[in-house]
Fold these 3 entries.
Entry 1:
Amino acid sequence: MSVRITVWDLPLRLFHWLLVLAVTGALVTINLGDSWMEWHGRFGLAVVGLIVFRLAWGVLGSTHSRFASFFPSPAAIARYCRGQWRGVGHNPLGALSVYALLGLFTFQAFSGLFASDEIAFSGPLSQAVSYNAVNTLSRWHRQTELWLYLLIGLHLLAIIAYRLRGRQLLGPMLHGKVETTEATEPRGGGAGAFTVALIVALAAVWLANGGWLQP
């Protein structure tokens, strides 16, 4: 007998959709020209805060928000490919996608803090490193943009493929519930954990904004 349980807690769902907005904003503004670069930087800072929140929530959050609950080990991936994997939350291949996206978003956001186009925009921490480091990180920041589009495209294709197979991925990320034979509700991730994760994220944004640097 299946029951509906809350798998994705509210902080995780808010993180997901706010990250969608922030990344979309960053990708749109980078293509609108120099006059939008300040907004590109602001969206980048938002991504930094959201990523740091997710990293904290991956330790402090409820059961299925924790990274340990969906680590895509080779054995788990093999069981999934053989049709033997059973569970709620991210399946092993979905977990690979999550880890890849988080890793690339992290690299893009943090490299952008040190990047500069030498014309319209310099990252808030570009003064904290050498000229050569700025050039290197700026180059990497631009070069990995293509990988960002690729991974986002694969993520969207996976959502469409699951939908065609009669499985819904967007719904649970809106309301958080899935049908399962596992009747145990997730544990952890209370108000105290949320407060700590939020404080850590806000501190990261303050540090990333470079207000502590000497002019």
Entry 2:
Amino acid sequence: MKTAVTLCRVPEMAAGPFVFHDELENSFAKAKACGYDAVELFFAGPDAVPVATVRELCERHGLGVAAVGSGAGMVKHGLSLTDPSQEVRRGALDFILRMVDFGAQFGAPCILGSMQGKWGGELSREQALALLAGSLATIDRAAGEAGVKFIYEPLNRYETNLFNRLLPAAEFLSANGLKNVVLLADLFHMNIEEADLAQALRDAGEKVGHVHWADSNRRAMGSGHTHAAAVMGVLREISYQGFISAEIFTDGDAEGAARKTMESIRRCGE
């Protein structure tokens, strides 16, 4: 299976679960040295780094782009697709559509995580889901026209109250006819919300389009209690063809965590 490692260049996200935070040249070099096929990019926005710069680094180091994250839209700019303010929602949708276009330059999908927002206060769950569905319909069309998928990530209950588990999210995508939107199965979030990680992946099936390979404590696999072999077995069972990406805390040893993650992926894939 294809492997990727997260690379973050957003100062406001420096404490997040991303492996490499170095200057781009160093991060790309380290990703290659640790044996990864691609990088998963978290930038401040679609114009933060020139497309030509990323393309040149990919070519020089023999790496692809697995996905681009949109989290800076929330963390840096306070944008959400389900914000009570129409102006904020418009800004969020514009930000994501531009990130879709940015990622498409490399054949890479954009990820929607924290920018999905949540319901509460003056916004009911039904209203929030209607807003989410409307925005995703627009994004779905844009992704299709750009020739890429779009990745929706169910998060744990402490980060959103929209969708926390894979199957309800998959059913939501299907019910709204979102053909170009797939799911991100983040094993850390799943360890909090799913009763059985392997069964959850099996139930979501072909809707699984990206995987974040993290142990139960959000560190490199082998640091917690996730049954990694069972997870990998189901990914093979459902004929998963996407990336397995390291989005983890590193405890100050980024290269060590990256190598430990790669070792666990290879070991489970044997």
Entry 3:
Amino acid sequence: MIEASVIRVVIAEDEAITREALTALLGLEAAIDVVASTGRGDRVRELIESHRADLVVLDLTMPGMTGLEVAEELHRERTGFPVVVLTSHGRPGEVQRALGSGVRGFLTKETSADKLVRVIREVHGGGRYIDQELATDALSAGHNPLTPREVQILRCLEDGRPVRDVADEVNVSEGTVRNHISSAIRKLGVSNRATACRQAAQAGWI
């Protein structure tokens, strides 16, 4: 029977081999119980609720919902729920967005298992841990200058969709989409929409 002091953890990681390794490693800790795991972001909330989890370890890149989208949803609906992000990369904009979404732990996958365990305990106890290099990069990158609508439109443009299709998707006129594109280009100091999308993506803003 699991003791009340054990931290009940859900792991959300789209790579099966990594997910299984994390489950096995954390399972060696007497104070941690991996109660569920998934490769899809849109299953996280369901698993947290059905397994009465105390904390979730999230990857950023997952089908269904990204790790950041999951964190944002949890922040809206379960403010204060402990979230640790474990990712192979941490672009400045992603770190900024994660912190704004209540994420209290942010680590790269180069982190040792021992350190991950320590961070899980610290975050579960109300603390915070952000990888120092990631935090420095996030601070030096500055604030995301794009509005939520500009972010939405640049995301839609990433795969080369025409303005007409983007306008239909976000339910505004083509002229409005072009205005937002022009604004984003000006803010980012670039010359065209493709470069704007690339620069915003590299910063982790879209």
